[in-house]
Amino acid sequence: MAHVPNDDRTAFGEYLRRRRAAITPPERPGRARTPARRVPGLRRQEVAEIAGISVEYYTRLEQGRAPRPSREVIAALARALELSGAERDHVFRLAGEPPPGPRSPGAAIRPGLLRMLRDLDDSMPVTVHDGRLDLLALNAASADLLRPLATAGPYRRNIAYQVFTATALPDLLGDEGADQLTRVAAAELRTALGRYPDDHYLRSLHTELTATSATFRDRWERGEVAAWRSAVKRIRHPDRGWLNFGIEMLHDPERDHWVMLYTPRDPA
After folding, report:
1. pLDDT tens-digit profile of 22-80?
2. The domain spanning residue 238 has which CATH number?
3. How many folded domains does the chain comprise?
4. Are residues 126 and 255 in the same domain?
5. What is the CATH number of the domain that holds 33?
6. Which residue numbers delimit the HTH cro/C1-type domain (predicted)?
7. Rounded (10°) CA dihedral 247, 147, 110, 105
8. Which string of b and e fits 120-156 if b means at least 16 CB within 10 Å?
9. Do 197 and 132 form a contact (C-beta atoms < 8 A)?
10. pTM value?
């Protein structure tokens, strides 16, 4: 994994000191209360014990005198210092390392995002899916627009599964649009498997599509990886006929959630 250029070990040590001072020392059942502390927060020895490293090494890290710590040590310090996801990512970058990706997408959508979906019911379709391509939420406008993609089965919420099993896909997008979307769906699934290589759900989905869809097998053999974040699509509304949309993808990296906005455009 490539390092993030950062040779300022002083900034890393300073951040450790500030976070250590901000933690309330835990009460230890069965032990006498410790004397009043001269400084707030945890002691260096306490952080080192929780992180599983020597106090001498931790002291050198705070003083900016230690070599670059390993990713395992950075992760242990993040846990010991009770860092949030954003704070953990920050301390990785200070140490010259890229932050770790999530082990799995978040299960819950931010409440503010759900309110936004409802607020846009009458103006634009919006969907939210996670890094495994499972549809987590959609507003009324998108549910109305994307009715032809509805499928059944254990993977019915998965966008890639919908694309390769919905018989109405050409009616929704036209032949050219349907062909393009199947390529994108296979590429997105390859990206998801690359990010979560041990995910049983994704592996099972890949096995299912390989066994049941010749179109999927053809698209998968192309070896494409998804990279698009903007698009213009022509979609046939079940009641209103052909409509044009500008599509933008927004990412919440902490949860690995993707927000897809369908902005109505004038007819071409």
Report:
1. 988 766 555 455 555 566 789 999 999 999 999 999 999 999 999 889 999 999 999 99
2. 3.30.450.180
3. 2
4. yes
5. 1.10.260.40
6. 41-88
7. -90
8. beeebbbbbbbbbbbbbbbbebbeebbebbebeeebe
9. no
10. 0.75
Domain that holds residue 206: 111-265
> Is residue 103 assigned to a domain?
no
Report CA 175 to chain centroid distance, whole Å: 31
189 CA to centre of own chain: 14
Question: Tens digits of per-residue pLDDT, 92-116?
Answer: 999 999 988 778 899 899 999 999 9
For residue 17, count other CB atoms closer than 10 A to its CB. 14
Cα gap 195→216, rounded to integer Å: 20
**Dihedral, CA atoms, 172, 178, 184, 186, nearest 10 degrees?**
110
Contact 54, 115 (CB under 8 A): no
Burial 85-94 (b: 16+ CB within 10 A, else e): eeebbbbbbb
Alpha helices in 63-166 (DSSP H): 71-80, 85-94, 111-119, 140-145, 159-165
CA distances from 223 to 148, 157, 182, 184, 255 (A): 28, 24, 13, 11, 27
Tokens matching residue 263? 């902005």
Helix (H) or strand (E) holding 193: helix 169-195
- At which residue do the structure tokens 């099972």 appear? 204
Tell me: do 115 and 88 sit in the same domain.
no
Which of 60, 94, 128 delimits the end of a domain?
A: 94
The Cα 141–Cα 143 span in angstroms is: 6
70 and 188: one domain? no
Lowest-confidence segment of 22-26, 47-51, 128-132, 164-168 by average pLDDT: 22-26
Return the SS3 of 121.
Answer: coil
